[in-house]
Write a structure and sequence with these properties.
Layout lengths: L2 H4 L4 E8 L11 H10 E8 L6 H6 L5 H15 L3 E4 L15 E2 L2 E3 L3 E4 L5 E4 L7 H5 L1 H27 L7 H12 L2 H15 L4 E4 L6 E5 L2 E5 L8 E5 L5 E5 H5 L10 H14 L1
Parallel strand pairs: 1-2, 2-3, 3-5, 7-8, 8-10
Antiparallel strand pairs: 1-11, 4-5, 6-7, 9-10, 11-12
Helix pairs in contact: 2-4, 6-7, 6-10, 7-10
Length: about 280
């Protein structure tokens, strides 16, 4: 009996794209990611930056066993034959000093040109080089990171209250971040700039991370794909063997219900406060 026959529940893909895990941050949903990695497999796994959160580790060391478990799971997949490519982001930029180097079967690259099974070429990169805040104002980027930490802290408290009252999971931090980004039209501009870079590289699409906003959409003649993150949305992109790209959400995969709710006036006040701190 083959391994595939022994584990019929595992979904097999041609390629998996994962980004923004932020190992070393208390907000990282390592248990969800481990569940995802247990029930999915792929010929190639591309890690698109911010897998390790070096910024937070510099501030205070936090590396529980679950972080080791994620690393070991990926190394185990590499040993079993999956090709794993690691494209560093801004939070794990220390890895950018090792282009072309292999660590336990994991290959480091600055960016990657992926050819889908349907012949479409995708430029794969983290995307922080197109974030004007990170590129031109490092101090402002750190202040924004602090405001994001505050949103995560609020999310933990809010989630505890919601559990107490029997309400389903809802991410305040994801919602708050999206509202602030929309206020400055950041997401739309980021997507346009990244799509233009793909066009310059003669690619038909681009796959990136960085802004924690998972989506598959067409921007002109370019297919724009963002993998999301494993802090809030817990999403990944999977390429099927015919080249079709699928946005996978862990909650859908695990059967946990996704509930869309109207936000309260109190939550709106929290967002305004976070926006002022980040300004």
């Amino acid at each position: 009996m083959t391994e595939k026959e022994q584990e019929p529940s595992i979904r097999h893909f041609r390629t998996l794209f994962i980004s923004d895990v932020h190992l070393g941050s208390k907000a990282a949903k390592t248990d969800y990611l481990l569940d995802f990695l247990r029930v999915t497999d792929a010929e190639t796994i591309i890690l698109i930056g911010d897998i390790v959160d070096g910024w937070r580790l510099k501030r205070s060391w936090y590396w529980p066993q679950s972080c080791n478990d994620v690393v070991q799971k990926l190394l185990r997949k590499a040993r079993k034959g999956s090709r794993i490519i690691y494209i560093p982001g801004n939070h794990d930029e220390f890895m950018r000093d090792f282009p072309g180097v292999h660590f336990g079967g994991i290959e480091v690259a600055q960016r990657h040109m992926h050819e889908g099974a349907d012949g479409v070429k995708y430029l794969v990169l983290h995307g922080d080089e197109f974030d004007v805040v990170v590129r031109n104002a490092r101090l402002l980027a750190y202040l924004g990171d602090w405001a994001y930490d505050m949103a995560i802290a609020i999310n933990i408290g809010l989630s505890a209250v919601r559990r107490r009252f029997g309400l389903p999971y809802w991410s305040f931090s994801a919602w708050a971040k999206l509202q602030v980004k929309h206020a400055v039209n950041f997401i739309g501009e980021f997507q346009k700039v990244v799509a233009e870079e793909a066009r310059r590289e003669n690619a038909g699409g681009v796959i990136c991370g960085h802004i924690h906003h998972a989506v598959i959409e067409d921007i002109g003649d370019i297919r724009y794909i963002n993998t999301g993150d494993w802090v809030e949305s817990c999403t990944a992109i999977a390429e099927h063997h015919d080249g079709t790209m699928e946005l996978i959400t862990w909650r859908h995969l695990s059967g946990v219900p996704v509930v869309k709710e109207d936000t309260s006036e109190v939550e709106m006040m929290m967002v305004r406060a976070l926006s002022q701190q980040a300004a």
